[in-house]
Amino acid sequence: MPDKKNTNVCCPESDEKDREFMRKIAEHPCYDKNAQHKYGRIHLPVAPACNVQCNFCVREFDCVNESRPGVTSKVLTPQEALEKTRDVIEKHPFIKVIGIAGPGDPLANEETFETFELVGKEFPDLTLCMSTNGLCLPQKLPELIHLGVSTLTVTVNAVDHEIIEKIYSHITYDGKVLKGIESAKIMHKNQMEGIKAAVDAGLAVKINTVLIPTINDEHIIDIAKKMKEIGVYIMNVMPLINQGAFAHLTPPTAKEREAIQKECEPYVTQMRHCRQCRADAYGLLGEDLSQVSDQRRKLINIKT
């Protein structure tokens, strides 16, 4: 978030940046709890490849009956994504954010950058947003900034190497598949460097943390403390969806999640209205228009 120190010094350029930063926050349904009722987002599923295998992740590219991260009914090309954005924005002008959140990791797909270039040119007043695991963030951040991405979500599930090792089966980095503590150290280093660089560059950064009972549940407070140190804007503690290698684990209860959010609140503002959206979701957070009928979409547009 922009530095609010030295308020006695007048700097028109800095003031303008601060106003623009806060405007984007106020119109982003994930960053402002009040915005979720007025403004929507569109996720463009152009990024199928992933460079990390999380033990809780199962990606599906033709899924129509689940509502969770990592799934889409269809992977789009950048041109198809632009055409979809045109159509959706025309019908639902309350959408203010264009995001790429998978179904893989956006930074592992060149289509991500092609898509941001296309939609950024045609919709310069809308906020460009992206979600990533952060493995390639230090290298790719300059290009994201150049393309106009201004809000960024990074999934950080641990800041301890031994816990990171338990959460990820492997990573693919510099053309190599890496496992164990070596991969955990690289993951941690790149995430922290990338997040700090993004914050220093003026991006609004949100951290997603999956609450995994028996794995990182007692460690999330340490993540919050580290994120405060770096200066992230908001943190989203998400309940585990038990699938993949973690299918045997029991998801946290709502009370368990709330207790951890309360513990983390003194360090980082907590997002409490997350819907764990699909990679092709659009509309308001509470009602994904990709999953409702055409008639229902028309009614929602009229009400909004």
Description:
By secondary structure, the protein is of the alpha/beta class. The protein has one domain (18-303): Aldolase class I (TIM Barrel, Alpha-Beta Barrel), CATH 3.20.20. The protein has nine helices and eleven strands. The chain has helices at residues 12-26, 78-91, 110-122, 137-147, 161-167, 180-200, 220-230, 254-264, 294-303, and strands at 40-43, 52-54, 95-100, 127-132, 149-155, 168-173, 176-178, 204-211, 234-239, 282-284, 287-288. The strands form two sheets. The protein has an eight-stranded mixed beta sheet, with helices on both faces. It has a three-stranded antiparallel beta sheet with strand order 2-6-7. Helix 4 runs parallel beside helix 6 (180-200) and helix 5 crosses helix 6. It is globular and about 45 Å long. The two termini are 30 Å apart. Residues 1-9 and 293-297 have low confidence and may be disordered.
Number of domains: 1
Strand tally is: 11
Structural class: alpha/beta
What's the order of the H and E elements?
HEEHEHEHEHEEHEHEHEEH
Overall, the morphology is globular
In CATH, the architecture is Alpha-Beta Barrel
CATH class: Alpha Beta
Strand content: 15-25%
Average pLDDT reading? 89
